[in-house]
Design brief:
- Helix content is about 25%, strand content about 30%.
- It has about 250 residues and is an alpha/beta fold.
- Strands 1, 2, 3, 4, 5, 6 and 13 form a seven-stranded mixed sheet that branches. It has a six-stranded mixed sheet with strand order 7-8-9-10-11-12, with no helix packed on it.
- The chain is globular.
- It binds zinc ion.
- Zinc ion binds next to loops.
């Protein structure tokens, strides 16, 4: 069992001028390959919607179809059909854009996030791209918090190694983190509930609350108590991927 971290979308916002990647996790499980978030998909590069074009301009998202998860998997020697399950932190285009590249996969998501995508209410919920879901994904919904993971309310996912969906509502209405047992420790993809690079003091609290929701102070305290957990954010500096041997 192993967990690989792929950068499935590169971006350089105009301000601050950070160079960022979008970590997506490829997990070997007892159910085959599981992808946690997809980044942008091929259709985002080949025929993007107006909304995706707009955000690509604002966030300086690179035109690089080789970063699409499906292309990276192929280069790693996997058939795309080997991905039987996709877990999504939320349905924004930069996390779910690759869904149509894996039409066979069951797509695991919190029910509140699906409902937010169906009926967006806030400005940040406008970043859902209908083209990501036009093929009719096989949805698997979760709702009841039935477990505790290291003191956080969580939902156990049906995979080995142990994996949990951890509700972190705020960035979007149904946004969740995903915890994955990784050897002796844990990886916790907090996605867009954490500032870039999971560095808590990178942006002021009022801006965090506005864009990524209310969880930063709580996660800061929680992380201090759990040094065995590696936290990831939805967007990490490009040097993070370079350190891991990825060129982009
Ligand atoms: Zn987002």
């Amino acid at each position: 069992m192993s967990v690989s971290i792929l950068n499935c979308a590169a971006m350089s916002p105009w301000f601050p001028r950070w160079h960022l990647g979008t970590p997506c996790l490829l997990v070997e499980t007892d159910q085959g390959l599981v992808l946690v978030d997809t980044g942008l998909g091929l259709h985002d590069y080949e025929h993007p919607s107006w909304m995706v074009r707009f955000f690509c301009l604002i966030f300086g998202i690179a035109h690089d179809p080789e970063l699409a998860a499906v292309r990276q998997l192929t280069r790693l020697g996997y058939q795309p059909e080997a991905v039987q399950h996709i877990i999504l932190t939320h349905l924004h285009f930069d996390h779910a854009g690759g869904l149509p590249d894996f039409p066979q996969a069951q797509t695991h998501i919190h029910r509140r996030e699906y409902e937010a995508m169906q009926h967006p209410r806030t400005w940040i919920e406008l970043a859902y791209d209908r083209l990501d879901f036009a093929h009719g994904p096989h949805w698997v919904f979760y709702e009841q918090q039935t477990a505790q993971w290291l003191g956080l309310d969580a939902i156990r996912l049906p995979f080995t190694p142990e994996m949990y969906l951890v509700p972190l509502f705020g960035h979007t209405r149904g946004h969740c983190g995903v915890a994955i047992q990784d050897g002796e420790g844990w990886l916790f993809q907090c996605a867009d509930a954490l500032p870039t690079n999971a560095q808590f003091d990178l942006t002021p609290d009022w801006l965090n609350r506005l864009v990524i929701g209310p969880h930063v102070p709580r996660l800061r305290a929680w992380a201090a108590a759990h040094p065995e957990v590696r936290l990831l954010a939805g967007h990490m500096g490009s040097s993070f991927f370079a350190d891991k041997g990825f060129s982009k």
